[in-house]
From TrEMBL:
E.C. code: 2.7.13.3
CDD domains (UniProt xref): HisKA, PAS
Pfam families: HATPase_c, HisKA, PAS
Keywords: Kinase, Phosphoprotein, Transferase
Keyword Acyltransferase tagged: no
Provenance organism: Adhaeribacter terreus
Domain PAS: 7-60, 135-188
Name of the protein in question: histidine kinase
Domain Histidine kinase: 280-504
Matching InterPro entries: HATPase_C_sf, HATPase_dom, His_kinase_dom, HisK_dim/P_dom, HisK_dim/P_sf, PAC, PAS, PAS-assoc_C
Length: 513
């Protein structure tokens, strides 16, 4: 008797302290006992549940169907859940629905039949499963929508996953690749060597590409071989190795590199030709020109009395033509030396450069009564001498092409410009725009492209010059990571806009460039 009492107390203690809910109902579905865990799970006090039909813990449609289910079971002894267990939905006191795992056992006593239900709340588990499923869906969406190709293979090199971009890149449908060896996407000799490479890696641990990445070649379905950048990562999961390859097509990049290489070679050849031309200009062309000038001077000084008036006029014209040719040659040499004799870029205070230029032009400014309006200019990485050439050419032009009955007014100012709001690190991302405005004769903007070309002169012989000054300005601006343009109207004036990068790439600081 005492033993039975002790067993009952032990069993009661187990039920009362159980983590899972335990509920017993009679043959009509009326709740007879509820342990604390079950009451807590459903949000009730035990006394609120005992004596009520168990369907109070069920949402629709189970709530309405439960009595019929018990009746059918009594009649047929065929149960949908008794002795089996399954996942169901419960209804808490506050109306919240939640998932739980329910297992029911039937007990037949001498005078009655009872059913015991074990309630295991799986809300946390389901939330974790949903979160994992959502995470997997996100990852899968990213993989499926990725621009680059993504392929996973097993340790035998068999493709287990191929995203649409990878299939498209190699010219296949996805189902043509799954289950096949990855070496079908490789030209020789990689195709024959790949299986051996995987074997060597798994036996020695020495990798040639895993975790590193490199440029390789791929084989498309149509036989085309193309370059791509491949990075491979290794994952060990569930006792096996999986390798994921990220494929970035670099066909266009390689074509651009080849075009750039050929362009650089052509540019180098062109520069050499320009240097040769400069040598010829400075030596071979100037030597006969000096003789023309020398003998012309002798005619003018020693034989002047023996020449007729027409002869004197011919000599004067010849010497003037020779002088103009000398100026053209010198300007052409200056243009060619911008690159061949350029110096490294250094921090250059444009305010100081402008002050020096205005000092050099002081007499011209006074003679023409020019008014110079200047605002602060920035410090940039530049070649100071070329900045002086730039300012001197443009300011001299503004004074030269003034209106006859109006004093020239020249306004010089700068604006900072950032090409993209979030980019400042790369040379060329930030530039300064230098504005040089005048109230001179101006020009028709349909000639805008012409004025920066070598030897182009819109005003013919009316104004002195070789027509090379603006070409020099443009070459200087381009060398400093920018360009030059202008806005103008005839009779109104001209505004030149010079764009210069604040910083220059380090490799361009080589004087040989």
């Amino acid at each position: 008797m005492e033993q039975n009492l002790e067993n009952q107390q032990r069993l009661k203690a187990i039920i009362e302290t159980a983590i899972d809910g335990i509920i017993t109902i009679d043959a009509k579905g009326i709740i007879e006992t509820v342990n604390p865990a079950a009451a807590r799970i459903f949000g009730y006090q035990p006394e609120e549940m005992i004596g009520n039909n168990v369907k109070m813990l069920m949402p629709e449609p189970d709530h309405s169907q439960h009595d019929q289910y018990i009746e059918n079971y009594h009649r047929t002894h065929v149960g949908k859940i008794i002795g089996i267990g399954r996942e169901v939905i419960g209804l808490k006191k506050d109306g919240t629905k939640f998932p739980f795992l329910l297992s029911i056992s039937e007990v037949k006593l001498k005078d009655k039949q009872i059913f015991t239900g074990i309630v295991h709340d799986i809300s946390t588990l389901k939330r974790a499963e949903d979160a994992l499923r959502e995470s997997e869906n996100k990852i899968n969406s990213i993989i499926q929508a990725a621009v680059d190709g993504i392929i996973t293979i097993d340790s035998y090199g068999i493709m287990e996953m191929v995203n649409p971009s990878a299939a498209k890149l190699f010219g296949y449908e996805i189902d043509e690749l799954l289950g096949k060896s990855i070496n079908m996407l490789m030209p020789e000799p990689d195709k024959s060597r790949h299986d051996g490479y995987i074997h060597n890696y798994e036996t020695t641990g020495r990798e040639r590409i895993i975790g590193i990445g490199r440029e390789v070649t791929g084989l498309k379905k149509d036989g085309t071989i193309f370059p791509f950048f491949l990075s491979v990562s290794e994952v060990k999961t569930q006792g096996k190795r999986i390798y994921t390859g990220f494929v970035h097509d670099i066909t266009q990049q390689k074509l651009n590199e080849e075009r750039l290489r050929r362009y650089a070679a052509e540019l180098e050849r062109s520069n050499l030709e320009l240097q040769d031309f400069a040598y010829v200009s400075s030596h071979d062309l100037q030597e006969p020109l000096r003789k023309i000038q020398a003998f012309g001077d002798r005619l003018q000084s020693k034989e002047k009395e023996n020449l007729s008036e027409q002869g004197k006029d011919y000599v004067d014209r010849m010497l003037n033509a020779a002088s103009r040719m000398q100026n053209l040659i010198n300007d052409l040499l200056s243009f060619s030396r911008l690159t061949t004799q350029s110096k490294p870029f250094v921090p250059t205070n444009l305010n100081q450069v402008l002050s020096e230029v205005l000092s050099d032009l002081e007499i011209t400014i006074e003679q023409t009564h020019a008014e110079i309006i200047r605002s602060p200019l920035p410090t940039i990485e530049a070649e100071p001498t070329q900045m002086r050439q730039l300012f001197q050419n443009l300011i001299s032009n503004a004074i030269k092409f003034r209106k006859e009955n109006e004093n020239p007014v020249i306004n010089i100012y700068a604006k900072h410009h950032q090409k993209k709001a979030h980019l400042t690190a790369t040379p060329g991302d930030e530039v300064t725009e230098i504005y040089i405005e005048d109230n001179g004769i101006g020009f028709d903007e349909k000639y805008l492209d012409r004025i920066f070309n070598i030897f182009q002169r819109l005003e013919g012989q009316k104004y002195e010059g070789s027509g090379i000054g603006l070409a020099i300005c443009r070459k200087i601006a381009i060398r400093h990571g920018g360009d030059i343009t202008a806005n103008s109207q005839p009779g109104v004036g001209t505004r030149f806009i010079i764009t210069l990068a604040l910083k220059q790439p380090k490799q361009e600081q080589d004087p040989a460039l």
